[in-house]
Amino acid sequence: MANIYTPRQQRILLITSLVVIAGFIIAGLRQYATAFLGAAILFVVFRPWFHSLTQKKKWNKRLVTVLLMLFSLIVIILPFAVLSVLLVDRIQVYARNPQQILDLVNQLEKATGFKLTTQQNVRQLVTEGASFASKQFPSILGGTLDFVVILGLLYFALYFMFMEEKTFMKGLQRYLPFEQKTLNELGESLKNNVNANVIGQAVVSFVQAILTGLTLWIFGTPDPAFWGMIAFFMAFIPVLGTPLVWGPAALIKFSQNETGQGLGILLVGVIVIINIDNLLRILLAKRMGDVHPLITLTGIVLGVPIFGILGLVIGPLLLSYFIVLMEVFERQNRQQRVEAVADEVRVEEQARKG
């Protein structure tokens, strides 16, 4: 029996069916998208180690995969999750008891001589900040089952990415609608972004958080461990970063007539913390990939509201991919113009010969 659709209609309906089914799959898994995104990031981070151990040292592939998964769980996932939970919990404490924040605002107003905002606005900002932090950071206390499912999916995907690496990479090359050169550029952009915004930035943020926490502790700032945690996450923001933590702390010291301590915080912040930040970024950029600060900053603003904490990496990556694809589009258009001119010249030559 003949099909009622033409070949062109069949192709259009096939593509439409694929898009619709993919839409249902994405909608169904959107709550767990962070698991697959996290698996992809860890795959990029540990792939050089995987190749070194399995190809150069000839270790068993399954053993290496399990060891890398355990290493990432112990060194990256669990510490980051615990840190996030402690931070969110402390922010919620401040949200329930905002008087300390109100006192800090009053001290800043005395130090600067400017009326910053009303007490009602401060209370609202603290409450909204607690709500925002709870949404962006993984919360074990808020949903143990979800956390376990996400973690299970992450490592399930990561396991098969490593164990079926060749099949996985061939599938990407086969089904992504790009030439090999474009795929190489996208892969290089992914590697640079992950290295710069995960490994490199995590090192920079950790060092700055330790220095900020120690500085505030030495100069008698209350709760230096909490502000050190804040500094860790603030350090991911280019240009602004940790000055958003130790700057107000110095102003508060000045407002309390503790000029020596305030000056000490400012000197350590400007001379040590900022310069350490610049030095580490220069050193790590040469080793781990250099991403322009404007791309990182804009990507963070774009990515965090959509992807949560993983937006620190995914946001800049999306912008980098957009730039790469725009360059590919420009290159292909330029090539088509050259080919069009060559065809016109060829036609003119044939016309003259005829």
Automatic annotation (TrEMBL):
It is found in: Membrane. Keywords: Membrane, Transmembrane, Transmembrane helix. The chain crosses the membrane at residues 12-29, 35-51, 63-88, 140-162, 198-219, 225-251, 263-284, 304-329. The keyword Transcription regulation does not apply. Its main location: membrane. One of its GO terms (cellular component) is membrane. The keyword RNA-binding does not apply. InterPro entries: AI-2E-like (IPR002549). It is a multi-pass membrane protein. PANTHER family: TRANSMEMBRANE PROTEIN, TRANSMEMBRANE PROTEIN 245. Belongs to the autoinducer-2 exporter (AI-2E) (TC 2.A.86) family. This is AI-2E family transporter.
